[in-house]
Automatic annotation (TrEMBL):
One of its GO terms (molecular function) is hydrolase activity. InterPro entries: RhgT-like, SGNH_hydro, SGNH_hydro_sf. It comes from Pyronema omphalodes (strain CBS 100304) (Pyronema confluens). The lineage of its organism: Eukaryota, Fungi, Dikarya, Ascomycota, Pezizomycotina. The keyword Signal applies. Residues 1-18 form the signal peptide. This is Similar to Rhamnogalacturonan acetylesterase rhgT acc. no. O31523. SUPFAM superfamilies: SGNH hydrolase. It comes from the Eukaryota. CDD domains: Rhamnogalacturan_acetylesterase_like. Residues 28-206 form the SGNH hydrolase-type esterase domain.
């Protein structure tokens, strides 16, 4: 009996560590998260492409949305319904929340932006999900000296403030996308524009790179040692080559 026990313990541990809970990522955001279209294109579908079963993703992001219009048009309500139904089915539910590009265009909206984000964090928690605040994808307008002239910087700051206050998970996509864009430079950054003069949206090739960037940031944020409940490594497929390129500041296409 004793021998059998010693034999089977490692087997049990192997089985336990191989278990991967069904996991869903629900993406809330504007055109810089949304599926590719005539006037929008973000990282959402590129992120989806990094997932492996039992990981799934619903991209709820829509062109032109601010936190205000996403809530007012019922998009947020629909996302929450989906969150609740996945929770019921015993999925781990992660909700990424990335706004700012359109909130920025609203007059005196800074405080309301933070209020909306805080409410969203609370709503997701209320449905048994894990909110992940995402700072906005950087715009690709360069100064002559090669640094980004990105007026979204303060908005990235508001997102960080809310994450801290609400003790919510967050990833700094603004900072990381700015770093990569400044490393590759303006000429190469122009190659990922959705159309001539569109320095905001991503074309198909770029959607994969920034989708991978988000995947890597999420793994780093959620999969720390000892936080097994949030560990997403078993549902995020890897591409070591691309991850290394992003770290080194290279876009090889
Ligand atoms: C995500 O990828 C899967 C598998 O390739 C696909 O079936 C699904 O439609 C995609 N979902 C989105 C939101 O793009
Ligand atoms: C680049 O130019 C901008 C605009 O003049 C300036 O604000 C910024 O500090 C400069 N950055 C560097 C690193 O020189
Ligand atoms: C992995 O990344 C490399 C480098 O960016 C890319 O060429 C390749 O297509 C990627 N592989 C897959 C399976 O996506």
């Amino acid at each position: 009996m004793r021998t059998i026990f010693l034999f089977s313990l490692p087997t049990l541990l192997t089985v336990a560590s191989a278990y991967c809970p069904p996991t869903v990522f629900l993406l809330a955001g504007d055109s810089t998260t949304a599926s590719l279209s005539a006037n929008g294109g973000g990282w959402g579908d590129g992120f989806n492409a990094t997932l492996v079963p039992p990981g799934v993703c619903e991209n709820h992001a829509l062109n032109g949305r601010s936190t205000k219009t996403f809530i007012d048009n019922g998009d947020w309500g629909r996302l929450l319904e989906s969150a609740a139904s996945f929770s019921e089915k015993e999925y781990r539910v992660f909700v990424t929340i990335q706004f700012g590009h359109n909130d920025q265009k609203l007059v005196d909206f800074e405080e309301q932006f933070k209020t909306n984000l805080k409410a969203m964090v609370g709503d997701v928690r209320g449905k048994g999900g894990v909110p992940v605040l995402v700072t906005p994808l950087a715009r690709r307008n360069f100064w002559p000296n090669g640094t980004l002239n990105d007026i979204l910087s303060p908005w990235a700051g508001y997102v960080r403030e809310v994450a801290e206050e609400m003790k919510a998970n967050s990833i700094d996509l603004w900072k990381e996308s700015k770093r990569l864009l400044e490393a590759v430079g303006e000429t190469q950054a122009r190659r990922i524009d959705l159309a001539d003069g569109d320095h905001t949206h991503l074309n198909h090739a770029a959607e994969k790179v920034f989708g991978r960037m988000v995947a890597d940031l999420l793994v780093a944020e959620l999969s720390e040692r000892g936080r097994k409940r949030l560990d997403v490594r078993c549902v995020v497929g890897r591409n070591e080559t691309m991850s290394r390129e992003i770290k080194k500041g290279v876009m090889s296409f």
